[in-house]
Amino acid sequence: MRITGTGHASMFIETAAGSILCDPWVNPAYFASWFPFPDNSQLDWGTLGQADYLYVSHLHRDHFDEENLSEHISKETTVLLPEYPTSELETELRALGFHKFIKTVSEEIVELPGGVKVMIQALTSPTDGPIGDSSLWVEDADGTRMLNQNDARPTDMSVFLQHGKIHAHLLQFSGAIWFPMVYELPDNAKRAFGKQKRERGFDRSLRYIDDVKGDWVFPIAGPPCFLDDSLYQFNDVFGDEGNIFPDQMAYVDWLEEQGRKQNIILLPGSVAEISADGSASVVHPVDDLREWFDNKKQHLDEYKERMQPRLEAEKASWSHPEIDVLETLRERIEPLMAQAEHIATGIGGPVRFDLTAPDSDQVVESIVFDFLERKIYPDDGAKVRYRFRTERRLIEHLLHIREVDWVNSLFLSCRFTAARIGQYNEYVYAFFKCLSEERLQYAEGWYAEQRPDDEDITVQGWQFQRRCPHLKADLSVFGKVEDGVLTCQMHGWKWNLKSGKCMTSVGHDIRSCPAEEAPAS
Asked: Which tens digits make up the pLDDT trace of 40-50?
């Protein structure tokens, strides 16, 4: 099996059944804040686009690049489609001209011509990507197997392992979020939170690596890079231990410190050969890989200069002063708030957006989303639980293009600041991810169906429910207990075991007690 790196989570896989192009992201995403790192625009996308199969893991715009898919990927390629609860991914691909689909069933093997088998596991909670994320397992005709986990976070890896040993395991290791950088916190607090998040991301990836026990590990799906002057500080080139966007070399160095030596970095154009006997080789488009990463800032600065015209063009498209933001929000969003019984209850209060002039901190309009009254109105000075500050033109643009997912646009852009009273509230982001009736109804149904888990486990003198209240991760695998605090290493959520209270987010308490006080079964 041959795997050619094509940037970020993208790769070109060659098998006995032909080629599979995965997640071909090239163009800037999230209000032109994210760019692929390293630069992959020099690749021959016209040739790569003639792949026999296309796999788009999910709708995040660093995986679903509408422009590249439209302009360079053959519409005669066959799409390997994950089984998602909504039809959005298929609808968007069909709108671009794709018309050949293999509609997979989650965790069921499909055999392609030539004896190659593929399996896609679809994750479908409201917090998995934009209503869904997925991983691709491939077994070549000679028995070589790879798992492209990309940035999905499965709670159970056994479905991939029951069919034989994995020879190549490709997974995310770097941050892909806006926390803690955008929060209005002291620098030392941001650095501490960032360091914790960076370490947790590394630890989580190592848990997956140890579960899969693949012959070779490929770090992929990050980091992005930031080429706009206002965001450049997010690049990991300043020696900040709290930076959540470490690069592939930093991660591989850490893996080797943990004793995991069989790692392969893919630059755009790197070609790796993987065999069923566990052997592997790789050829890079540069002579010295470490030297290339040592010169990372130089590469970023040159990349930034090349992309400056694109950045300016993107920014020029955002302003739509003809849009009455408040009235348009009322018209489109209030009906959704009225339907959001579980999510609105979970938010439990007002959320305010302070809208500023372009490239300025001057607030020109403040709008409140009141999830108790299910109304949107001008700020009246009342206390709010969440506050976001962003440029008005960004909201104008979201309304202009009828964006249904502000998480997969505004929030991932990091072009905002945030403050909150109390703990993180996942329902806030669930709502702003579900600004369409289809998405909202699915998310509401998902939350409505959640029930307490009846099975308990005992760990280090504490008895608590086996399934994480957040995303049902198995706490016998992902749970860690220290000083009476339970941490789910899947996403880093914490609980006080004495009280059962969630220390991370409201509305997710756990059933727990000292083991000696547990009722007899």
From this structure: 999 999 999 99
